[in-house]
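Lecture notes, unit on binding sites. The following record was shown on slide 14. It pairs a sequence with zinc ion.
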Amino acid sequence: MADVREAARLLEKAQRVVVFTGAGISAESGVPTFRDALTGLWERFDAQSLATPQAFQDDPDLVWGWYEWRRHRVSSVHPNPGHLAVAAMRNAVVITQNVDDLHERAGSADTVHLHGSLFMPRCAQCGEAAALPSTTGEPDEGRRVWPPSCVRCAGLVRPGVVWFGEALPEAALEAAARAASDCDVLLTVGTSGMVYPAAEIPRLAARSGAAVIQVNPQPTPLDSVALVNLRGSAARVLPDLVATAWPDQAAEDPAAEPS
Ligand code: BJW
Ligand code: ZN
């Protein structure tokens, strides 16, 4: 409780706030994380056989089917109180590693996506943006689905996400680095802080003099970077934090349009 008050005090007096999120913020919406024991996606699937350019080259229908399954799953869930609390921090810059659209659906329209999106497929050959397939019904977890063909060059369409060994979108990485070096407070939520260069963002903020606040039920390598570690789930801790920092605003519906 004292830690929440300390974090709220830092947030309330900050001019520039960055919220940096990972899979954990979407866990309570029903989107699995990657590395959590038992529930993480990679407890059940082999990352190397699904989240690399080589995997798509070797087995396009396995990889496309897996991403279609995840896209349908994300489309069927809703933002949780953690996403809504982030959207209530109206001037915060939101930087996410997530490929879902739950921040946007909660009201954080300008979210920066470091690892791309499940909803922006593109041609693997020429890079042309592709339309989302209008498939009916959700594919099963392991079902193979042949990817669509590019309308420009007939190459295979791939998911618009960043796989291991691929560069992050330049504009997103630049925007994230700029915001992190310029902020007073960076709030890191629900990330294991293990995947680079994204994991450099909270570290860059700390080096630039910002106070880092972490929300995570488990210890992470970012514990030593954070000034305040709030051990708990995003959907429980973030609304508490917002209510403590801005007691008047907390009474409003965070998803409502400003009047
Ligand atoms: C809760 C909660 C609740 C649970 N509330 N919290 C330096 C050293 C070693 C290796 C490298 C290095 N630099 C780069 C590399 C290689 C590699 C890398 O980092 N590997 C590491 C694993 C060692 N990085 C790359 O390959 C990157 N590219 C690159 O470096 O390119 C160089 C290059 C330059 C120029 C030209 C060409 C190349 C790309 C990384 C792409 C990552 N992609 C993925 C998959 C996206 C697609 C998909 O979704 O399938 O992104 S990997 C996966 O990990 C996904 C995530 O965004 C990312 C981070 O995971 P996240 O969000 O932290 O999730 P988890 O599961 O790890 O953690 C969840 C946390 O939530 C836990 O802490 C829980 O406790 C917590 N939690 N419930 C709050 N309710
Ligand atoms: Zn093409």
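Take-home: The chain is about 35% helix and 15% strand.
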